Fold this protein.
Amino acid sequence: MTALSKYDRLEAIGLWRPDAEGQRREVIVSIGHATLVISDMNDQAITHWSLAAVERANPQSIPALYHPDGDTGETLELPASEKEMINAIETLCSTIAKGRPRPGRLRWLGVGLSLSAVAALLIFWLPGAMRDNTLRVVPQVKREALGVALMERMQRVTGLMCSDAAGLRALRRLGTRLDTTKLAVVPALGRAALHLPGGVIVLDRRVFEDWEEPDVAAGYILGEVAQQLNHDPLGELLDTVGPWENFRLLTTGEVSSAALDAYAEHLMTAPPQTPDTENLLALFEASDVRATPYARARDITGESVLALIEGDPMKNKQTEPLLPDSAWLRLQSICGG
């Protein structure tokens, strides 16, 4: 995250092609949260490339030519005049690559376990044991890469992540206030919020547009934080895709595209989970956020959220506004309207 923040305001002009037959077009290239953001000249995001999956087709040559891992048809060309952006991409990709598990070690692990029948029975025969082992060894950079891959798939249904610059600054300010900065907003999530591996929390634009105060949106964010405390998002993915994909991730560091497609669809269609009330109230108290507005947003009658209303740690207390009015108004317009 420190390496990314160094380039968070860097932009460049390049030529992007959507596929091998497509026409090249001039675009704006910037560096987002674990992604390379490609936008049109009106600053509307066209696509996001995971930095963990950016490949350079012509090392040491200029203009630099990049493509997503596994898709050489889609390309991004950066001229010599954009050397600062080229250097930034090379630096970030190198940093991410250093954090990945070494394939040689994973292969050695696979060979060693295959030679040890006893170890295979004890660790891999039981899905639960394999799952727990996977959660221990998968590094944070891989979790974030999986989250980015899922987000890219979900955007086919939700629409592209909202990218209004002023709104994003307000979103980061709210995230900092709640001690969780990995936030994204989409136009049509189909539910208020959900969380992904790597710690990203995705919010529907309505949590900002349908209420007059940010306490509701803050409540949905804290609700996802509470769920992550009880259930590892990567564990939820593994439970859904099954033991074979679990084994694939453990031994190769990858999850198949088909499994990611299926899990993205599952996230979009599964009923929203209800966070544990005790953990959630503790987060409200630690953040000095009122629980009642969020509870009323979930159930205006208050019947199903009575414990949240009665246990609101900020009840009858004066609290500082989560955001200034100007920042809240910008956040309500993060999706451009």
The mean pLDDT is 86.
